From TrEMBL:
Coiled coil: none annotated. Residues 7-169 form the DJ-1/PfpI domain. This is DJ-1/PfpI family protein. InterPro entries: Class_I_gatase-like, DJ-1/PfpI, Prot/Nucl_acid_deglycase. Pfam families: DJ-1_PfpI (PF01965).
Length: 201
């Protein structure tokens, strides 16, 4: 497996949603396996995140090759809710067809729903009603959970960035369950007693 993760630089992306996952992948501080994080834009033009951070994509979608990646990360963004992001959804389709995991959170799940990629996979999002507005055919496979993994697709809602990170790290087999339990306890529930367990696991 290549230690490269690709992150979709979608205009207006929600900074916090993939923040935990990006930090753990890039540093490898709790996994011992640092990744190169490569930002991918629809074009080479800079985008601005919801928080006002300017991001200059490393590569464009035309250069994105699933064979050179271990993971495609799709953050939520206002663009998805405006009906955009189709090019990134098609990239996700290519990744899944190639057997490469895709991690999508919040608005990105709506984009994947519109593309039909959730019709045959168990998934979650902000709420079942949120995805229902897309008119997709996968409503019966919606799971009311913080994060869901099925057929190389990891999904989560905007309230679950820590669970999104945990589920993705687990799917990539980068950390044992004991360490992931401590990670979630510390960063989601603020359980300071989990820190020694996290460092010792």
């Amino acid at each position: 497996m290549t230690n490269t993760a690709h992150f979709a630089a979608v205009d207006s992306l929600a900074d916090w949603e993939a923040g935990h996952l990006l930090a753990e992948l890039r540093t490898g501080r709790f996994t011992g396996t640092p990744f190169d994080v490569v930002t991918v834009g629809e074009t080479s033009a800079p985008i601005t995140t919801m928080g006002g951070v300017r991001v200059l994509p490393d590569i464009t979608l035309s250069e994105l090759d699933p064979a050179a990646s271990a993971l495609l990360i799709l953050p939520g963004a206002e663009e998805w809710d405006a009906g955009g992001g189709a090019a990134f959804a098609e990239a996700a389709r290519r990744f899944l067809a190639a057997g490469v995991p895709v991690a999508a959170i919040c608005g990105a799940t709506a984009g994947l729903a519109r593309a039909g990629l959730l019709d045959e996979r168990r998934h979650t999002s902000a709420a079942a009603e949120y995805l229902a507005y897309t008119g997709y055919a996968g409503g019966e496979r919606y799971v009311d959970a913080r994060a869901v993994v099925d057929q190389n697709l990891i999904t989560a809602g905007p309230q679950s960035p820590v669970q999104f990170a945990r589920a993705t790290l687990a799917h990539l087999e980068l950390a044992p369950e004991a360490k992931l339990d401590a990670y979630e306890a510390l960063f989601d529930r603020g359980d300071a007693s989990a820190f020694p367990a996290l460092m010792a696991a």
